[in-house]
Amino acid sequence: MALLEQLGRLDSARELRDFQTEPAQMRAAAPGKVGELRLGFSLRDDRSVLHDLYRVAPLLVQQALYWDEAMPELPICSIISIGGGILQGDRYRIDITVAEGACAHVTSQSANRIHQMDANYASQHQTVTLESGAYLEYLPDFTIAYRDSRFINHSDIVIAEDATLLYGEMMLAGRKHHHADERFGLDLLSVAVAVRRPDGRKLFAEKILIEKGDPTIDYPAVMRGYDAFANIMCLTPPAVAARIRDRYETNFPPEAPRAISGVCRLPNDAGLMLRAVGEETYDVRNEVRRFWRIVREEARGRTLPEEFLWR
Amino acid sequence: MADRASGRGGSPGMAHLARLLQFSDSTLPIGSFAFSNGLESAVQTGVVSDPESLLAYVDLILRQTARMDGIALLHAHRAALARDHEAILLADRELFCRRVGEEQQLMLTRVGKKFAELVIKIMPSPALERWLADIRANATPGCLPVGQAIALAHMDVDEAEAFVMHQYAIASMIMSAALRLMRIDHLDTQRILFTAQGRVEGDYRAVRDRSLDEMASFAPVFDVLVAHHTTTHVRLFMN
């Protein structure tokens, strides 16, 4: 019921009003197009484990593995989309809970491709809950919005005062090396997030809305010269946020930068936000990794392992 | 009745118009001269370098402001007309919780509070006094567009006029910062201001039916500029 209610709220969004036709293939939200994933992490005998796993294809997680050499206690789950990307009419729902004192890392197997659409849209609703002292890194790989794609994503986060969450989206404006019309050729990208305390107090909200024909896309203060961007938030207590902020150096070189980035404070002592913009995905990923390393060191006293050669 | 075409005979709206001009004047002492709305970093990094790029910058800020602050202003104005104090506070909270960057937050709330203090000195307004008391008690953040909405609703200014005044104040703030930050003369800034104001009706129509949850933006390089400014050592402006 809760699933239908949350997805239903997205269905009524104003920006989707022009995308209500049914696909010629399988109908929207048909069985097989509604992916569901529930992950619950908690402490068992002082070790963080994935104690709860429920999944409905096309979303899939197999098990938690412990392969981070710099943080061997960290259970890592990779979200696999067996559909090969997000298709028109898909409806996804992801629910992650990290219980008191536990830690976890959730990522995705590869770039999240939102395919070209000629009918309907795809939607995703996420809930992320962190209890007292919990630590979660939820860093999916890049989302690539193909030309004519329509995607709406809403995330509801509930976080205890002393927990730390690193969460964010990295986006690429289409298959830039495939076709000239791919760059911001998307019909709709609507990504919203709301952060609350367990008592319901709202700390932070943001909505990014890109619609086809936005005349400002190529303005210098928007995306001129760049194709990839990331908004990565670190929700953490003010003392930790202050240490992270002191260490993160703004990157805005004067001559033809490949990537620029900086960290800002969120309202209501919610934490920090990393803003990064770059030419290629790896330029932006470098900025995100630099932030991620500092966050992990300051929040958990652990560092990042060397990046795999094949990433 | 006034003869609109010739303007002869006067109209009961003349004092009303005069006061609209007073509240729109860039010399209104609420401290907005201390803010550049990101322009200082935009000039330092080369994002803005000449009149053409300044026009694009102002155009973007007006579009973005309409889709964020403008929506909160319209909701607060309607709440003020309905004498619904809770709805005013909701618009205030919802706008503030979407403002990233300590300097952007400072601009929004410091100028908001100054505006309320000024208006109360020159005109009695119980709704504005109650809002200012809530700001002082830390019960509400005190965002400028909300204060403007309360004051202007009290003066029988309709919501479209209030929206125009808010947008104009943002544009003129950036123009006055531009004169101090870059090689540009008063004639160019006036030409840019004149051009940029052409979009106001379209912006109003685009946002007037939107809910507070629909406040949205997209300007990644601007967002980095906001972060950039907090870490620059040489600066004239507070944001």
From TrEMBL, chain A:
GO CC terms: cytoplasm
UniProt keyword annotation of Cytoplasm present: yes
Compartment(s): Cytoplasm
Keywords, comma-separated and alphabetical: Chaperone, Cytoplasm, Nickel insertion
First-listed, main subcellular location of the protein, grouped into a coarse class: cytoplasm
A single MF term (Gene Ontology): nickel cation binding
Domain of life: Bacteria
Similarity annotation: Belongs to the UreD family.
Function: Required for maturation of urease via the functional incorporation of the urease nickel metallocenter.
Stored HAMAP family: UreD
Subunit-level organization: UreD, UreF and UreG form a complex that acts as a GTP-hydrolysis-dependent molecular chaperone, activating the urease apoprotein by helping to assemble the nickel containing metallocenter of UreC. The UreE protein probably delivers the nickel.
Protein name according to UniProt: Urease accessory protein UreD
Species name: Hansschlegelia beijingensis
TrEMBL record, chain B:
Sorted UniProt keywords: Chaperone, Cytoplasm, Nickel insertion
Keyword Chaperone belongs to the record: yes
Residues forming coiled coils: none
GO cellular component: cytoplasm
Cross-referenced InterPro entries: UreF (IPR002639), UreF_sf (IPR038277)
Pfam family, any one: UreF
Gene3D superfamilies: Urease accessory protein UreF
Cell compartment(s), UniProt: Cytoplasm
GO function terms (MF aspect): nickel cation binding
Function: Required for maturation of urease via the functional incorporation of the urease nickel metallocenter.
Family as reported in the entry's similarity comment: Belongs to the UreF family.
Alphabetized HAMAP family for the sequence: UreF (MF_01385)
Subunit note: UreD, UreF and UreG form a complex that acts as a GTP-hydrolysis-dependent molecular chaperone, activating the urease apoprotein by helping to assemble the nickel containing metallocenter of UreC. The UreE protein probably delivers the nickel.
Protein known as: Urease accessory protein UreF
Organism, as annotated: Hansschlegelia beijingensis
Lineage of source species: Bacteria, Pseudomonadati, Pseudomonadota, Alphaproteobacteria, Hyphomicrobiales
Gene: ureF
